[in-house]
Amino acid sequence: MVTRHTAGTLQPRALATMPGDSQVSPVPSSVREALLDPHWRRAMEEEYTALLANQTWDLIPRPPGSNIVTGKWIWTHKRRADGTLERYKARWVLRGFTQRPGVDYDETFSQVVKPATVRTVLSLALTRGWPVHQLDVKNAFLHGILTETV
For residue 128, what are the CA distances in angstroms to 34, 85, 115, 117, 119? Predict the structure, then answer.
């Protein structure tokens, strides 16, 4: 397996300001600022389109007495291994910290891979000479059907 270190391709320490970044749009601090920049506007449109295409939400009337979970935009620069700009990334995230245990939810479960599992698979790949590839998923969603009101 060839790592970044053995290949001589190290990830830069400071990704926020890279040499030659004068033409890269800075990360916006507000939605208004993001909408004025065509790069960030396009990234936000891509995220919104993906949310619609994956049918991740429906607009419904607010149930009486319900706590509405608000959301916000997060903007980041996605970089290649050499530090050059790959793309502008905008994500719509929910502010789940506004939910109240016992009122808005009873239990939580998040399906994630444990770091030990990843290390085991990488160790197997290394010992057996399997090729290892990196994959970046733009929009990953679990396709379970919820019966609860969220």
Answer: 47, 34, 20, 17, 14
